[in-house]
């Protein structure tokens, strides 16, 4: 099940975020959060942590502080949802980042639920490798990040991410 926003709704979300609100993932259970998560806005006073999903997943898989979810994805999530970075996105950049987020959640969810790997048999090392070498480059390419203007994603962010994930699939 996926929650899709219309262009008008997405533009409204983008405008709210530019006004210093924060993201919150939707969903009620572990896998619905993992698979159907989509950025929406919530007032800053609610202290919603959009990156909490990675702690929840790590609690289940127990990869620990050096594992993929805590050492890689949670810090990256904090970066892409930080007001400093979000404030630099254009609407195109914001749409692209939301697309990448959803793509990564879907691919990781498919992997962890056994659609692309045997359920429960993925090791932490394998998960880290698959996400870095396959999921990230595939999602960045599929969402058009590698072809957008540097200014759409914020030049510093684009320059950080582009060499890591573009032209790798």
Give the count of helical stretches. Answer: 8
> What percent of the residues sit in helical stretches (DSSP H or I)?
55-70%
Category from helices, strands and their pairing: mainly alpha
Unreliably modeled segments = 1-46
Q: Determine Rg (CA atoms, Å).
A: 15 Å
Biggest β-sheet description: 2 strands, antiparallel
Strand-residue proportion: under 5%
What's the number of extended β-strand segments?
A: 2
- Walk across the major sheet and give the strand order: 1-2
Shape call: globular
Transmembrane segments: 21-42
Protein name: ShKT domain-containing protein
Keywords: Membrane, Transmembrane, Transmembrane helix
What does this structure look like?
- Helices cover 58% and strands 5% of the residues.
- It is mainly alpha-helical and 169 residues long.
- It has a two-stranded antiparallel ribbon.
- Helix 3 packs antiparallel against helix 4.
Keyword list:
single chain; about 170 residues; mainly alpha; two-stranded antiparallel sheet; 8 helices; 2 strands; about 60% helix; ShKT domain-containing protein; transmembrane helix; membrane; transmembrane
How would you sum up this structure in a few lines?
This is ShKT domain-containing protein. Keywords: Membrane, Transmembrane, Transmembrane helix. With 169 residues, the protein is mainly alpha-helical.
Summarize the SSE layout with pairings:
Layout: H1 7-18, E1 22-25, H2 30-36, E2 39-42, H3 52-61, H4 68-80, H5 83-86, H6 91-112, H7 124-142, H8 155-165
Antiparallel strand pairs: 1-2
Helix pairs in contact: 2-6, 3-4, 6-7
């Amino acid at each position: 099940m996926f929650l899709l926003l219309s262009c008008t709704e997405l533009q409204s979300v983008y405008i709210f975020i530019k006004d210093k609100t924060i993201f919150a993932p939707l969903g009620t259970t572990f896998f619905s959060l993992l698979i159907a998560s989509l950025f929406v806005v919530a007032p800053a006073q609610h202290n919603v942590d959009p990156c909490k999903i990675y702690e929840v997943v790590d609690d289940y898989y127990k990869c620990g502080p050096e594992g993929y979810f805590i050492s890689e994805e949670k810090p990256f999530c904090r970066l892409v949802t930080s007001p400093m970075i979000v404030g630099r996105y254009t609407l195109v950049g914001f749409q692209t980042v939301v697309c990448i987020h959803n793509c990564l959640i879907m691919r990781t969810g498919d992997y962890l639920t056994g659609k692309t790997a045997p359920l429960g048999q993925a090791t932490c090392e394998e998960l880290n490798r698959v996400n870095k070498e396959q999921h990230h480059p595939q999602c960045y390419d599929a969402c058009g990040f590698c072809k957008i203007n540097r200014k759409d994603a914020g030049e510093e962010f684009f320059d950080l991410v582009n060499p890591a994930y573009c032209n790798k699939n």
